């Protein structure tokens, strides 16, 4: 593995779900050595005949909860730090390991966790090693992330939205795509990342996009985009981004820094019903 390759480990009871990561840009990034993806079947660390990874909830209730001991054996192996070792021995090995490479960031999808954002994706795109764990059923035992945090591991729990999925595989796929596309060399045209929704410094939604033909089924591309005047095109797109964000995600407008808005931004926001004064814009009733 190249020195600058991001290593991504994924633990799941359905590791074949991630065969899709070999397609398109993610597949090309692996071929180039930008990322390396390794999948692991959690059931390989279960010792009973049925390779079970779950049990009934303590205190009763519906569904099944993933057992911490199976997860811990798996994670300990991947972290190369067995739980049964003495604290002194473990600290010594961790010290040696940290000289070679930093410990991975452990990421666990959880519908009850903070929302995964573009800011998180940007931060994680700079990591050298990410370790994702895909929960199933009613999720993993709550002691699991607590245990690894106490051991000094950087543990992140994220939700990708206000809904519940059958398992963490979808959420992990979403996060991996959001993270890896920000790694230098991943995208063929790095400028496209700068212009996309949520990637700018102020996080506005992206303006509408059009292509040829300029007339299609009675609908025209906005004439300003055909003018050749790049300054006017940029202003049109910025105004459209402000309008769309105001309409769909007013919370983003409310978080803008008024000091970073230019005169034209202020004029547009005022026309959209915002008071642009103080630290942040305020919606007028």
TrEMBL record:
Cell compartments where the protein resides: Cytoplasm
Highest rank taxon of the organism: Bacteria
Binding site for S-adenosyl-L-methionine: 135, 160-165
EC number: 2.1.1.228
GO biological process: tRNA N1-guanine methylation
Keyword Endoplasmic reticulum: no
Keywords in alphabetical order: Cytoplasm, Methyltransferase, S-adenosyl-L-methionine, Transferase, tRNA processing
Catalytic activity: guanosine(37) in tRNA + S-adenosyl-L-methionine = N(1)-methylguanosine(37) in tRNA + S-adenosyl-L-homocysteine + H(+)
Subcellular location, principal: cytoplasm
Region (Disordered): 82-104
Biological role: Specifically methylates guanosine-37 in various tRNAs.
Homology family: Belongs to the RNA methyltransferase TrmD family.
NCBIfam families given in the database record: PRK00026.1 (NF000648), trmD (TIGR00088)
UniProt xrefs under HAMAP family: TrmD
Record-given protein name: tRNA (guanine-N(1)-)-methyltransferase
Species annotation: Parascardovia denticolens DSM 10105 = JCM 12538
Lineage: Bacteria, Bacillati, Actinomycetota, Actinomycetes, Bifidobacteriales
């Amino acid at each position: 593995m190249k020195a600058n390759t991001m290593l991504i480990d994924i633990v799941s009871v359905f590791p074949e779900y991630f065969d899709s990561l070999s397609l398109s840009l993610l597949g090309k990034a692996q071929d180039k050595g930008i990322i390396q993806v390794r999948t692991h079947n959690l059931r390989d660390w279960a010792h009973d005949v049925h390779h079970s990874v779950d049990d009934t909830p303590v205190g009763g209730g519906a569904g099944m909860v993933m057992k911490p001991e199976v997860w811990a054996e798996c994670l300990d192996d991947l972290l190369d730090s067995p739980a049964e070792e003495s604290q002194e021995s473990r600290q010594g090995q961790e010290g040696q390991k940290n000289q070679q490479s930093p410990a991975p960031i452990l990421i666990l999808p959880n519908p009850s966790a903070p929302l995964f954002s573009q800011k998180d994706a940007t931060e994680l795109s700079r990591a050298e090693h990410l370790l994702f764990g895909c929960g199933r059923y009613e999720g993993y035992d709550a002691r699991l992330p607590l245990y690894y945090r106490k051991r000094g591991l950087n543990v992140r729990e994220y939700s990708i939205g206000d809904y519940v999925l059958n398992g963490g595989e979808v959420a992990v796929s979403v996060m991996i795509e959001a993270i890896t596309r920000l790694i230098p060399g991943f995208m063929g045209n790095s400028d496209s990342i700068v212009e996309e929704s949520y990637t700018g410094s102020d996080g506005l939604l992206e303006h509408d996009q059009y292509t040829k033909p300029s007339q299609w089924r009675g609908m025209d591309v906005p004439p300003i985009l055909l003018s050749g005047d790049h300054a006017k095109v940029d202003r049109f797109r910025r105004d459209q981004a402000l309008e769309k964000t105001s309409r769909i995600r007013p919370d983003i407008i409310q978080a803008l820094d008024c000091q970073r808005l230019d005169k034209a931004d202020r004029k547009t926001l005022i026309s959209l019903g915002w008071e642009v004064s103080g630290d942040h814009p305020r919606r007028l009733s």
